[in-house]
Structure prediction request, 317 residues.
Amino acid sequence: MNLASVTTPRSSELPARHHDLVVRLQDSQLFRDYRGAFQVATGLPLVLRESGSFQTPLAGSKQLNPFCALMAGRNRSCAACLQLQERAEREAVAESKTLQCFAGLSETVVPIRLGDMIVAYLQTGQVMFRPPTRSRFRAAVRQLGQWGVTADLPALEPAYFQTRVIAKSHYEATVRLLASFAQLLSLLSNELMIKEAAAESPAVAKGRAFIAEHLGEPISLAQVAQAANTSAFYFCKIFKSAVGLTFTNYLARTRVEKTKQLLLNPNVRVSEAAYAAGFQSLSQFNRVFRRVTGETPSRYREQLHGAAPGSSLAFAA
Prediction:
């Protein structure tokens, strides 16, 4: 799958169940605990927001940069921030994206995927990699003037110079931690979506139970339909209606998610995880993994644990 084809729909275009999913992620104990620890450890703000949400960057964070908070109250500068956020979403397809605003502050978005769709982003930043200077501040004020924004210099200047300054290498390491957390949230997203199918027909429940029990083995539609006591044609029909995926796509996604769970253990090789999840060949695994996630297995493993010299990842390139 071409990463450029991974969709980042506006919030109005996301299925209602995906919107509900993001709300559940935001309310989850996993996210709330991580956000608290992250903000205490780094001093940086962190929010989880829906893909395409039309809100000011890092809205709702108690650690909002004072300068950015002032900018958010001015229509033209707020629009500039939203445009930067939209650009970051467009470019954060394969991985996280850090962009710098007109005033020299950097922000980062990290995508959270459900299959091949980006449903949400982790967002942090509003920092500088070098100490703010008066020349940079004057340039920002001139830009505001060109936009027709009246700057309240007595309030704006001290807020600008309060901006958090962090070494770029330190910030990049922080973003890598967020990327790993985004992978965990992707796993949680899949679990939540699967649980939504709990109120399903007995036949579908039996079929999913059979898949879960025999995931590491070759599984055919005929076998699953027999376990559900239905014909293959009827099972396909009710399964797609209940789960929202075809039998083939559901099986592929379930196996990929199983592989991703196994790869959380740095001692498990990609090939071992693939076979344990029921893939019959590495070529099939590579093809399905990339179709479902939008990235190669080696890239996913590298994001989790870093590249391992001399590892067995060459087959998954």
User: Anything to note?
Assistant: Confidence is low (pLDDT under 50) at residues 1-14, 308-317. Residues 3-190 form one domain.
